[in-house]
Amino acid sequence: AFNVETGDEVWDPLSILLALRRDHDESRNQYDYHVVYKGELKPYRFVTGELRSLEIDETIYEAIPFTRTHGRRKTIIWLSPEHDMIPARIEQYKDDELNTRMDLLSLSRDR
User: pLDDT tens across 1-12, in order?
Assistant: First the structure.
């Protein structure tokens, strides 16, 4: 257990998706957060790119890339505005080489 004092909101690495979904605003291109990781408070900065089409398992998603560069690693979270900013794809790179990719393969909603 540990204590961290801060006047700002603090997130964990998994809940940062909720913050990005909540905070998305087309007039912004940068998002800064405080994240607790392994007992330390770390700054996370995401920079947005332009809306792009992603083809995933024969489905086209329009998505905005939110990119975080941290040392030799890079994380790109692709959020789909047409699906309430649900992640269509999450990618992690190490030394500019794709290391991990998670794709949205199915989405069903009751409206």
Answer: 566 666 779 999
Under a CB-based contact definition with an 8 Å cutoff, are residues 23 and 16 in contact?
A: no
| Strand segments (E) across 38-96 | 40-48, 52-56, 59-70, 73-80, 86-94
Distances (CA, A) of 79 to 6, 8, 83: 28, 24, 8
Reported pTM:
0.89
- Give the C-alpha distances (Å, rounded to integers) separating 38 from 13, 41, 42, 73, 74: 10, 8, 10, 17, 19
Q: pLDDT tens digit string along 28-48?
A: 999 999 999 898 899 999 999
- Give 5's DSSP letter: -
**For 11-109, where are the alpha helices, taking DSSP H only?**
16-23
